[in-house]
Amino acid sequence: MKKSLFTLALAFAFVFSAFANDPAYESAMKKQIQAMKTIQNPEQSQAVANGFLRIAEVKNTEWLPLYYAAYLKTIAAFRFEVNKDQYFDQAMELAKKAEKIAPNHSEITALQGFITMGKLSVDPMSRGQELSGQAMQLFGKAIALDRENPRAVTMMAQMEQGMAQFFGQGPEKACGLARTGLELFAKEEAKVTEDYLLPTWGKREAEQVAGACK
Question: In the record, which residues are listed under signal peptide (predicted)?
């Protein structure tokens, strides 16, 4: 028993010392980001999210592992037959942990708005009045923090599109934001390399909003 505990302690010590070096952290993150592209069901999504959470435990000064775990929870709630409220709540909890590490970060704030939009979508009739305003405020804050963030602009475009449809208004504002989002994605793509760890998602959503404008 003592021998097995000693072996386990050595294993954990090795993992922690390995992640103390940035190359090991970057390698682990790239592996998980690649794994995100292969997700086909809730179980796979949870497994990849758990991988990010293990990285977060070791690199507790990095916001990205928590961010990606929160993002995966959010996408799983939209994509799969799961307890959506539970998933969105878990996503928000992780996003707030990331926010403590990196306060007033545009990407984290935009993700919080995306999660709030998800909560709204579960029951729009009863939650729309409260959560639509919260989502708009978060997207507005994310844009103010970084006007070059294509995800913040694109999510705001989606909200504006939904609001316009609900109130029977024209799509001009949503369309303009979507076009701006696509321009920002083009700028982002120009600097993305295989070592790029920052978020790149959202172009498909911008294309969907822009496509509805034709």
Answer: 1-20
Please give the tally of structural domains in the chain.
2
- Give whole-number Cα distances, 30 to 23, 47, 131, 166, 174, in Å: 10, 15, 34, 40, 33
Query: What is the Cα–Cα distance from 79 to 155, expressed in whole angstroms?
Result: 17
CA of residue 16 relative to chain centroid, distance: 26
Domain ranges, residue 6? 1-94
Alpha carbon distance 207, 191 (integer Å): 20
d(CA 70, CA 96): 9
CB of 178 within 8 A of CB of 202? no
Give the DSSP H or E segment for 114.
helix 106-122
Three-state DSSP string of 33-45: HHHHCCCCCHHHH
Q: How many helices (H) and strands (E) does the chain have?
A: 10, 0
Q: 82 and 15 share a domain?
A: yes
**What length does the chain have?**
214
Task: Give the closest residue to 157 by CA, choosing from 106, 204, 125.
Answer: 204
Tokens describing residue 165 = 């449809």
Split the chain (214 residues) into runs of 10 and give each run's mean pLDDT. 41 45 89 97 98 97 98 98 98 98 98 98 94 97 98 97 88 96 97 93 96 87
